[in-house]
Amino acid sequence: MSYDHLAAAQAVAVVAREHAVRVDAKAEFPLGSIDSAREHGLFGLISSTEVGGHGRGLRQAAEVIERLARECGSSAMVMTMHYSGAAVIEKHGALETRRAIAAGKHLSTLAFSESGSRSHFWAPLGTARVEGSHAVLDASKSWITSASRADAYVWSSRTSAAEGPSSLWLVDRTTPGLSIDGGFDGIGLRGNDSAPVKAAGARVPLSNRLGADGEGFGIMMQTVLPLFSVLISAGSIGMMEAAVEKTAEHAGGMKYAHLNNSPLSELPTIRAYVARMRIQTDMARALWLDTIAALEAGRADAMLRVLEVKAATAESAREVLDTAMRVCGGQAFRKDVGVERRFRDTRAALIMAPTSDQLYDFIGKAACGLPLF
Fold first, then answer.
1. Do the domain assignments include residue 373?
2. What is the pLDDT of residues 69-120, one digit of tens each?
3. What is the pLDDT of residue 113?
4. Are residues 174 and 87 in the same domain?
5. CB of 96 within 8 A of CB of 106?
6. Structural domain of residue 340, as residue ranges?
């Protein structure tokens, strides 16, 4: 029987729903849903069948993230970064690590952003100095999702000798010389265990390099960016879907006692707000699905869609959740309504590299026939 990734995602979503409020309130890593994803085979979703994975692609990973994001943004974020790292390892990593991911024994993540280059993730400042059979890493990474939970990081550095802006490495989290600098207490995605990580003379085998020296930028652009953009967008869409559902429930359930117990949904203005939310969500979903189709078909406009979809879905999610807060009024500030958590969680996509402002610049350059870099 073929693997049913949607059934697996639904099972994990049930777990995520049960602990999402606690994860948010306590800034607690969503261990329950991540363990459930491991148990239901989702860690190896995009791993090849030759290493024991399910051999699925971008579309199936996106569907999983969208479903999880409806319940718990932090769970969706952790799995987004896992798939982003796993995609690099699947193409360039050692067989042993690929098998571990497929078997659900390895949680991956990306370590790209640095305090010096900030959201310009493609331009690392950290170095990799070759000493014999090892590379010595020195860097100050700004934020790494699953920093204290991932088994290893897909880590960027300057090249050691070759031309090009960057190289990539697989760096075990327990490598001597690595230190996690504090925890995460943000306004949204509070359970994603994002933290700064420093490398001071961290030694990794040269065999842990992912691709050749100097190929990091190409891997970032060709492998990571399309997948990451589509999966982040999946998270935004999932949270929009949840917001529409919660807002419609609120509008139908809240009643004016002095107006013969008529619900909010009988007011044309309220229905119009919910309609705008529905339209905005459907428009974002249409672009998202077209982006996936463009990548699958190798269309000429695929990379333009990759740039557009993250910016569009992030902005749409912001507008949808702003409207949800308006419709639900004072009740929206209550945790049990389920709107304010998504309101906070959706903000992350706006400023997560590449930020919306950077994407607008890239899209404008593309439209004007200018080089992106």
1. no
2. 999 999 999 999 999 999 999 999 999 999 999 999 999 999 999 988 878 8
3. 93
4. no
5. no
6. 217-367
Environment class of residue 259 by beta-carbon count within 10 Å: exposed (0-12), middle (13-18) or buried (19+)? Answer: exposed
Kindly state whether residues 208 and 224 are assigned to the same domain.
no
| Whether pLDDT at 256 is above 90 | no
Tokens describing residue 227:
């997948």
Q: Please give the sequence-ordered ranges of beta strands (E in DSSP) within the chain, or none if there are none.
A: 110-111, 127-131, 134-144, 152-157, 167-172, 178-180, 195-205, 255-256, 262-263
Tokens representing 230 are 């589509």
Confidence band (pLDDT; 50, 70, 90) for 172? very high
What is the number of domains present in the chain? 3
Helix (H, G, I), strand (E, B) or coil at 335: helix
CA dist 185 → 23, 76, 120, 318 (Å): 12, 18, 23, 21
253: confidence class by pLDDT, cuts 50, 70, 90:
low
Indicate whether 184 and 229 sit together in one domain. no
CATH code at position 349: 1.20.140.10
CA dihedral (247, 281, 311, 196) in degrees, to 10, reads 40
Strand 152-157 with 195-205, pairing:
unpaired
Record the tokens describing residue 353, joined without a space. Answer: 């590299």
Contact 86, 80 (CB under 8 A): no
- In sequence order, the β-bridge partners of residue 129 are 136
Distance CA 182, CA 180 (A): 6
- pLDDT tens profile 219-245: 999 999 999 999 999 999 999 999 999
Contact 342, 190 (CB under 8 A): no
Domain membership flag for residue 177: yes
